[in-house]
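Fold in tokens:
===
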Amino acid sequence: MGYDCWAAVHNLKQMAATVAAYGQYGYSPEELDAALVSANADLQDSTAKLKALDAAIREKKELQTQVLAYAKTKPARDGLKAQKTEKAQRLPGTARKRFYHSGRSHPLFSGAWRFQAAKP
């Protein structure tokens, strides 16, 4: 029971010192409540903005991951490109001919496709 009595007296002294400090600096409990509500509203606004920024950062990290994964495929893409070039060089001359459009009208309907030999 001694501790309970001491704790109650200590808490009352702390509360009295707090009320005296408020009075000394010109604060009233209503002003403090208004300041607390304002600070809480500012905190909520900041939290909402932070969540939006966090979502944007997550999207950018995902994009960065995808770009890095794509960049790692460069050797495979280069190999495939070289393989296609080698295959095209091995084909006979008539197979290397390319189609081109003469520019008159749509080629499927006008028969305007012509052959152009590939340059060696």
